[in-house]
Write a structure and sequence with these properties.
Elements lengths: L9 H8 L1 E2 L9 H9 L3 E4 L7 H14 L4 E4 L20 H7 L2 H17 L4 E2 L24 H17 L3 E7 L20 H6 L3 H8 L4 E4 L17 H11 L5 E3 L6 H4 L4 H11 L4 E2 L7 H17 L4 H24 L9 H9 L1 E3 L12 E5 L16 H7 L4 E5 L4 H9 L4 E5 L6 H13 L4 E4 L11 E4 L5 H12 L2
Parallel strand pairs: 1-8, 2-3, 3-4, 4-5, 5-6, 6-7, 10-11, 10-12, 12-13, 13-14
Antiparallel strand pairs: 9-14
C-alpha cells in the first residue's frame, strides 16, 4: 500500500492516535518510538514483553521518555489471564473465584491491589474486567474469566472491580460488549453468533455493562460476535447499531470504545484487518487493538494508511476519526490527572491469597485426613485457549512440593490418560487436577478409570465446577491461578 503522509499532518496523526499496537521484545523497538513521535498514543503489552516488574518499569519509562502521556495497555485480568506473572501464575484469583465468594468489598480490594501493581510499573490502561455473563457452560473462551452465570452477580462485581482498579489510577476497559458469555465458538478462531431475543440480551448480557458505565468505567471493549437481534449483518465491533446506537445512545456511554484484537480470525478472516479497522472506527470505535499476533511496524503502517485512505475517499468521515482520536487523548489526560491526584495506597500483598482461600468449595472434607506423604499429582491438561495461553504454569504440584517435598507430577491427555496416570503414580496417593471436566469427555473418562482403581484419589477442579464432585476429596478452586493452587495445596497437606 502507498504511504500517504509523512506522519506530521493532522489526519495522519489522528490515524496513528487511534491505534493500540503491540511489539516483540522487552525493550521498545526504534520503530515504535518513532511512531510515538509521529502521533501514536497507545501501546499494548503482552506476556512476551514482560520479564519482571523492574524490567516493565524500565520499559514504560522508555516509552514515556518519547511521549509522556502515552497510554500503556495490558491484558491483566488476574486469574488464568495474567501478563504481569505470565511465567509464574497470578497472585490474584480470577473473576469466577471472586464471584464464588460474592463479597464486593473483596473484589474491590483485589482490583485495587492489582491496579496498584500495574500503576507502579507504569501501566495505566487495563483491558479488564470481563463483564461477560457465562450463561453457556460450554463456552470455550470465557469460563472462569467470568464472575458467574447470574447477571446481577456479574453486574455488582463488575462495578466493584471497575471502582477498585480505577482507584489506583488505572483505567478499566470493561469487556466484551455486548457480552461474550453465551457463545460456543472462540472469536480468536471464528465468528461466534448469539441467537437470543433483544429482551434477553437486555436483561442478561447488558446488565453488567450498565453497572460498569454507572461505576464510571473509562473504556469498553467490543466483542467480535454476531448478535442478530441487534444487528443481523455485522459483528459488534463493526456495527454502528451496536456501538453508536446501543452503547452510546441507549446506554449513555461517552468514554473510550476499544476493539478486541483485530487480528483475531472473527475479523481478520472475514473482513481483513485494514477493512475491519475502517469499519470499526466508522461504527463508533475509538481505538483499534492489534498486536497479539501482528506486532510490527508494517501492521501499524498498513492500518494508518487504510484509515487515511478511507477518509480521503469519503468512506470514513474525517470528523469521526478526529472524534475517536480526541477520546484517546482524553483518556490519556485522565490517567495523568488520576495518577497525580491519588496517593499510592499501601500494598496488600496477601489479598489475592485470602480471596483464593475463600473461593474454595470442598466436597468430602469431613472424612478427609490431610496427606503426610508426598503424592503423585496428575494434571489432566486440555489445550489452553488463546486468551489464557499455554506459557503460564497452573496446577498444584509446585505448591504441594513446597509443603510435601518429594511430590511427583506428570501431565496427561487423551484417551489413555487414565491408565497412564495409574501407571505413573505407582503406590503413591493420587491428586488428579482437572480443568473444565464437563467440557472434555476424555478427561471425565480418565477420572472414571483412576477412581475405579484408586477411590482415595483427591480431585481438584481448577476450571468451572460443572461436573458432579467426586473423589475422596473434591476441591473446586474456580480458577487456575497460582494462588488457587496454593490454597488447594494447603487443604491437601493440612497447612
Amino acid at each position: 500500500m502507498t504511504t500517504f503522509a509523512s506522519g506530521t499532518d493532522t489526519l495522519t496523526r489522528d490515524a496513528l492516535t487511534v491505534l493500540q499496537p503491540g511489539f516483540t521484545g522487552t525493550t521498545a523497538p526504534d520503530w515504535l518510538l518513532r511512531r510515538l513521535g509521529e502521533g501514536l498514543a497507545s501501546v499494548g503489552l503482552f506476556g512476551r514483553n514482560i520479564a519482571s516488574a523492574e524490567q516493565l518499569s524500565a520499559l514504560t519509562a522508555q516509552l514515556r521518555a518519547e511521549r509522556d502521556d502515552v497510554l500503556v495497555a495490558i491484558d491483566e485480568e488476574g486469574g488464568d489471564v495474567t501478563r504481569l506473572e505470565v511465567r509464574t501464575g497470578s497472585s490474584f484469583p480470577g473473576n469466577n473465584a471472586l464471584g464464588a465468594v460474592d463479597d464486593v468489598d473483596l473484589t474491590r480490594e483485589v482490583a485495587a491491589e492489582l491496579g496498584r501493581r500495574l500503576a507502579a510499573c507504569g501501566v495505566n490502561l487495563n483491558w479488564a474486567p470481563s463483564a461477560d455473563v457465562n450463561s453457556n457452560p460450554a463456552n470455550p473462551v470465557i469460563g472462569v474469566r467470568s464472575f458467574g452465570a447470574e447477571p446481577a452477580l456479574v453486574a455488582r462485581h463488575t462495578a466493584a472491580y471497575v471502582t477498585g482498579l480505577q482507584s489506583a489510577g488505572v483505567a478499566a476497559c470493561t469487556k466484551h460488549f455486548p457480552g461474550h458469555g453465551d457463545t460456543a465458538v472462540d472469536s480468536h478462531h471464528a465468528l461466534p453468533r448469539i441467537d437470543v431475543p433483544a429482551d434477553v440480551l437486555s436483561a442478561r448480557e447488558l446488565a453488567p455493562f450498565h453497572a460498569a458505565i454507572t461505576a464510571g468505567t473509562r473504556a469498553v471493549m467490543s466483542a467480535h460476535i454476531l448478535v442478530p437481534a441487534l444487528d443481523p449483518d455485522r459483528p459488534a465491533t463493526l456495527s454502528h447499531r451496536i456501538l453508536t446506537g446501543l452503547l452510546r445512545r441507549e446506554l449513555g456511554y461517552d468514554g473510550l470504545i476499544v476493539t478486541d484484537g483485530m487480528e483475531m480470525r472473527a475479523i481478520a478472516g472475514t473482513y481483513g484487518i485494514e477493512r475491519g479497522s475502517v469499519l470499526a472506527i466508522a461504527a463508533g470505535a475509538d481505538a483499534i487493538c492489534v498486536g497479539g499476533g501482528l506486532a510490527d511496524d508494517e501492521t501499524v503502517r498498513r492500518l494508518r494508511d487504510a484509515l487515511v485512505a478511507a477518509v480521503r475517499s469519503g468512506e470514513l468521515p474525517e470528523a469521526r476519526l478526529a472524534e475517536a482520536a480526541d477520546r484517546v487523548r482524553s483518556l490519556a489526560r485522565w490517567t495523568t490527572t488520576a495518577k497525580a491526584a491519588r496517593p499510592q495506597p499501601a500494598p496488600d500483598t496477601e489479598v489475592g491469597l485470602r480471596a483464593a482461600r475463600r473461593a474454595l468449595r470442598l466436597t468430602g472434607a469431613d472424612a478427609f485426613t490431610p496427606l503426610t506423604d508426598p503424592p503423585y499429582v496428575a494434571a489432566l491438561t486440555p489445550v489452553a485457549n488463546i486468551a489464557v495461553g499455554d506459557e503460564t504454569p497452573w496446577g498444584v504440584a509446585a505448591e504441594l512440593f513446597r509443603l510435601l517435598p518429594g511430590t511427583e507430577t506428570g501431565t496427561f491427555s487423551g484417551e489413555d490418560a487414565g491408565l497412564a496416570t495409574l501407571a505413573a503414580a505407582g503406590p503413591r496417593r493420587i491428586v488428579a487436577v482437572v480443568r473444565d471436566e464437563h467440557r472434555h469427555p476424555w478427561m471425565a473418562a480418565a477420572l472414571d478409570t483412576v477412581l475405579r482403581s484408586r477411590p482415595d484419589t483427591v480431585v481438584i477442579e481448577m476450571g468451572l465446577p460443572q461436573a458432579p464432585p467426586r473423589g475422596a476429596l473434591h476441591i473446586a478452586t474456580h480458577g487456575a491461578a497460582r494462588v488457587c493452587g496454593r490454597a488447594a495445596a494447603e487443604i491437601i497437606a493440612g497447612a
